[in-house]
Request: fold
Amino acid sequence: MTLLEYSKQQFLIDLNSLRKTNCNNIASELSPYIDSKTSFFGGYNWENYENDIMKVAPENRDKFCVCLFTMSSSDQHAHARFPNLLAVWLRYFKYPKFGYCGLGPHFEKVNYLLDVPAAHGINFDPISQEQIDEFLTSQFTAGRLVLGDELNFFFQTMVQDSDFSSDTEIFRKIKKGIVVILN
Reply:
């Protein structure tokens, strides 16, 4: 199964298998877009990694982590940098947040979604640049329907952000794919 096929056929099923917690009411005082219905997964430093990943079929774990990474990095970028687009974004992309909620919401570093699995032996090598490009093209097409002309600027600022980084080869493929689509 390719990355694009996985994203369309299995990802949402696997995403729904994650243990999620809802935020508390304090969060709604801090942000109009995070409230007690907002769900979080992963925990501090993705401490729930082993429980989260064991529910995903071994042959899909690499693809699951790539989909989680792209979903979470886009979502966190929208929250951090594009408050003017956030209401529209959340109407279409109501994703669970990577992190945890304690005395308010805490977003985790999205690079953990690639770094932690790599450190635990997940092999991303079977996902080729061609699969990444095909998947990202599909994601950009869907995103363009929502954000229109703002989409390119959205992703240009994301790839330029110093926090959008990872030492993994799969991250380099993802970033390369985004840059190619933008040019």
